[in-house]
């Protein structure tokens, strides 16, 4: 039986692993210090390092019995990563779901879905239009059926935690203070979506449409990107770092930085083009 779980991010686990290894054998610790150490451990968990996860787990096992919960958390994370290739196929639940509603800034009423309601639906099968025109606050998504529709929804302080996001439409939705980590976004649609203070970390983005979207203070780090189309979008104060880039379209994209000087905006624009390996002439 397939069991999807909400798991911590690779960075969160890496911080915990670093501390345990340092406490157990500070003189033998060889990952480096601070952020570099955390990044090196995360690279192992993500499969980007020449060192294997088995080697890392063997080191952790030497730290004592108190490390057992952390070892289990790492194994849960790795198992959830394996499930990224497995579609969620449970049929829609026939049991009734009761939703409260709330009004959003444009006057529309959305059904409210919290973590408890999401967990129930994940276990029983997501009802038809569960994700459409809904209001999600502090919800951690760890499984989605392929091809679901978040049309017109709002997401606040949510997480897509090692989640398969395939054929998903976020069109005309609003996504605030949300994190996508160690997730696969394939053939996902963010057309005319608003994204603010949202982070993509350790994700694979393939055939993703970001056309006519408004992104503000969003970051994309340690991700692979191929066939990602930002045509007609606005990127305000957005950053990209340590990207493995394939085809990325920035045609007719406005790249700016609110409150910055013209020179600072130019430097930011050049940095984005450089990281994404897009020719400056395409701006």
Helices, strands, pairings?
Blueprint: H1 10-24, H2 34-46, H3 53-61, H4 68-82, E1 100-103, E2 109-113, H5 115-124, E3 134-137, E4 140-141, E5 154-156, E6 159-161, E7 164-166, E8 174-176, E9 179-181, E10 184-186, E11 194-196, E12 199-201, E13 204-209, E14 214-216, E15 219-221, E16 224-229, E17 234-236, E18 239-241, E19 244-245, E20 248-249, E21 254-256, H6 262-275
Helix pairs in contact: 1-2, 1-4
Descriptive account of the structure:
This protein is an alpha/beta fold. 27% of the residues lie in helices and 25% in strands. It is built from 6 helices and 21 strands. Helix 1 packs across helix 2 and helix 1 runs antiparallel to helix 4. It is globular and about 55 Å long.
The count of strands amounts to 21
Low-confidence spans: pLDDT under 50, at least 5 residues? Answer: none
Sheet with the most strands, sense and barrel status? 9 strands, mixed
In spatial order, strands of the major sheet run: 1-2-3-5-8-11-14-17-21
Characterize the overall form: globular
Mean pLDDT score, rounded? 93
Q: Please, what is the oligomeric state?
A: single chain
Number of helical segments with 4 or more residues: 6
> Could you estimate the helical fraction of the residues in percent?
25-40%
- How far apart are the termini? 49 Å
Secondary structure class reads: alpha/beta
Q: Nearest-angstrom radius of gyration?
A: 20 Å
Tell me what portion of residues adopts beta-strand conformation: 15-25%
